[in-house]
Design a protein that fits this description.
By secondary structure, this protein is of the alpha/beta class. Helix content is about 35%, strand content about 20%. The two termini are about 35 Å apart. The structure holds zinc ion.
Amino acid sequence: MDQLPNFQDLKVSQSSQAFSRQTMGSLDHLLIVLPEKPHARLFRKLPQGTQLERMFKRSKIVGSGVVTSRLNNQRDTGIVLSTYTEKSTFQRLTWARKLVAECLKNSPGTLGISTIGLNEEERQRVIVAIVAAAEAAAFKLPEFKSAEKSRSRSLKQLKILSAQPRIDLNEVNATSLGNNVARWFTALPPNELNAKTYRHMAEQLAKKYGIRSEFFDEHKLKKLGAGAFLAVSQGNPSRDAGILRLSYRPKKQAKPDLALVGKGILFDTGGTNLKPFKSMLDMHKDMQGSAVALGTLIALSKLQVTYAVDAWLAITENRISGTAYKSQDVVRAVNGMTIQVIHTDAEGRMVLADTLALAAREKPGLIIDYATLTGSCVVALTERYSGAFSNREELAAQVTLSGTESGERIWSFPMDEDYDEDLLSSVADVKQCSATGYGDHILAARFLSKFVPDSIPWVHLDLSAGQHKGGLAHIPSDLTGFGVRLTVDLLRRNQVGL
Ligand SMILES: [Zn+2]
C-alpha cells in the first residue's frame, strides 16, 4: 500500500430550500429528527406528513426511540425517524452513531437530514453530531479482500435540509479528516506499514497540506545522543527507524508554538521480555499515538490555525532479536539523563523520552504527547476514557473539560513528585519503570516528565480509549482515533497560552 486514499470523500451540503416531496424523492434515505414531543402541526409542515405522523405514533406504541420505514414514493426512500432530548456530548455522539448506522443499513448513496421543529441551539448540536458520525462511517478503513464487489456501496452525499441559517461545519470537517487519517494509518497491517512506508506516506500527506518534513534517522539520532530511542530501534532487522518531524508554519517563523508528539511503535513484540500471544495480537496498533499526532496536525492545518505547529512521530518496531536491548542496560537520552532499563516492553516511554526532549529543544509554548502507553491505564479506566497527565494543574483541568465538551472523555491522574521514589535507581539517573507494575500509567508519566523542562506546559495522554469494541461516541470502528477531536477542542478554547 503506497497510495493514500481520499481521507474525506463524503460531500456535505446545506440546502436552504424548503423541504418538499421532490427533495424527498431525490434521496436514497432520509433521517428526520423531531423534538421530544412533536406537535401534530409539525407533521403537517412535512411532505408526506400523514404517513410520517402515523409512523411516529406507531413508534410510541413499539416503545423504541427510533423507527424505520420506507416512504411511499418512486424511489422508495428509506426513512429513519427519531426524537432528540438534550444530552451530554458523548451521549449525543453515541446517539448519532446509532442513527447513522440505522440509516446506512441499506447502503444509501445519498442521505438527507431534517431537524424541523428543533430550536436553533439543538439544531446546531444535532447536525454537527450527525455530520461527525456520518463522516466517520462513510470513510472506509483499509481492506484487502479480493472480491471488490463484496464491498458495500458507501455513502457519498449528506444533504442538510432546510438549513437556515447555515451551520459552520469547518471544525467538524477538519476533525473528521484528522480522525480518519489517524484511524486509517493505525488500521494498516504491519507488513504494509513499516518505518519506510509510514515515513513516506506521512511525508506525502504533509506535503499536500504545505507541511515541511525532516527525518532524524538512526545515524542522526546517534550524533544527537538519543540513546533511549536507539535502545529500542537497535533490535530491528533494518535501519529505517527514526523520528519524523513535520512542521506547519502559517507565517514566516522558525519556532513552533505547539509541539505534538506521538508514539509510533509499528509492532510491539515486547522485545526481549516477550509478550504472550493474546497481548501481542493487536500490537500493530501501538503506533496509534503517532497517527493521532499526525491527524491532529492535518486537522489544524486544514483549519488554517494562525500558530506554528510541529508533529514529532517516533517510528520504530520493538523486536525480539540478538541485538535487542535488555533489562539492566543503561542508556543515555538526548537531554543527558541516564536510564536503567527494567522491562523491554516499556519501550514507548523510551522512544518518547528522546522525542519529547528533541521537541522541547525548540521551546514550544505547549507540548502534547499521545501514546497507547500502559495497560494499567486501561485497567484503571477501561477503554471508554483516556488518561491525562500534566505538569500544570490548570492545564489538566482544561483537558478534562475539553474531554467532556468534545465527547472524547478524559480522566486526569496525579503527578505528585513523591511517586518518583518508585523510579529511584542505584546505577542511573532514573529507572525506566518499577518492577512491580503498580500504577504504571502514573509512573510512566513521571518518567516522561524528566524529559520535558518545567518551563514548558505539557500534557501527556495515555490513549486507553484508542480502541473500543463496537466503536465509541460517534466512531463506528473498533479503532477510535481518540485525541484529534479532544485536541482541536482544547486549542479552540484558546486557554493554553498559544
Ligand atoms: Zn510495549
